[in-house]
């Protein structure tokens, strides 16, 4: 099973259109059109799994740079997701000048609390 990355897709592209696009090159195992979590709109790229490595290579050669929906497709072998990437706010929030340690409520729990004024 070979996974292919398909980039620079039109936002109106559907999974069935991708399936039909890759079928002439061989048997398509699965098509995963990546969508935005909040809006449900396509994000412009997808992953296509092909059952045979030779067929996948033919699909890359035949579809890379092909114009579909007014855009030139970018098709190549998908790379594995990097497991070493740290979460975005792990080290103080990037360029915000934060400390290297994560925020913790424990510092505030141990401090003496000031009495609150009544709200009335």
Can you tell me about this structure?
The protein has 120 residues and is an alpha+beta fold. It has a domain at 2-77: RRM (RNA recognition motif) domain (Alpha-Beta Plaits). It contains three helices and six strands; from the N terminus they run E-H-E-E-H-E-E-E-H. The strands form two sheets. It has a four-stranded antiparallel β-sheet with strand order 2-3-1-6, covered by helices on one side. The protein has a two-stranded antiparallel ribbon with strand order 4-5. The radius of gyration is 24 Å and the shape is elongated.
Please state roughly what percent of the residues sit in beta strands, choosing from under 5%, 5-15%, 15-25%, 25-35%, 35-45% or over 45%. Answer: 25-35%
CATH class value of the domain at 2-77? Alpha Beta
Tally of separate helices: 3
Strands in their spatial order, largest beta sheet: 2-3-1-6
- Level of helix content? 10-25%
Write the CATH fold name of the domain at 2-77.
Alpha-Beta Plaits
| CATH architectural group of the domain at 2-77 | 2-Layer Sandwich
Q: Globular, elongated, flat, extended or rod-shaped: what is the shape?
A: elongated
Q: Could you give the distance between the termini?
A: 68 Å
What pattern of helices and strands is seen along the backbone?
Answer: EHEEHEEEH
Largest β-sheet summary? 4 strands, antiparallel
* Model regions low in confidence, pLDDT < 50 over at least 5 residues: none
Report the mean per-residue pLDDT as an integer: 83
Query: What's the CATH H-level superfamily name of the domain at 2-77?
Result: RRM (RNA recognition motif) domain
Overall strand count: 6
Radius of gyration: 24 Å
Query: What class do helices, strands and sheet pairing give?
Result: alpha+beta
């Amino acid at each position: 099973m070979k996974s292919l990355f398909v980039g620079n897709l039109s936002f109106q592209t559907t999974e069935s259109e991708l399936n039909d696009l890759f079928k002439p090159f061989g048997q398509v195992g699965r098509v995963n059109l990546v969508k935005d979590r909040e809006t449900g709109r396509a994000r412009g790229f997808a992953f296509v799994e092909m059952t045979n490595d030779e067929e996948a290579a033919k699909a890359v050669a035949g579809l890379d740079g092909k114009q579909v929906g007014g855009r030139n497709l970018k098709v190549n072998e998908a790379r594995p997701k990097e497991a070493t990437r740290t979460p975005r706010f792990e080290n103080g929030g990037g360029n915000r000048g934060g400390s290297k340690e994560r925020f913790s409520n424990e510092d505030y729990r141990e401090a003496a609390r000031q009495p609150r004024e009544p709200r009335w």
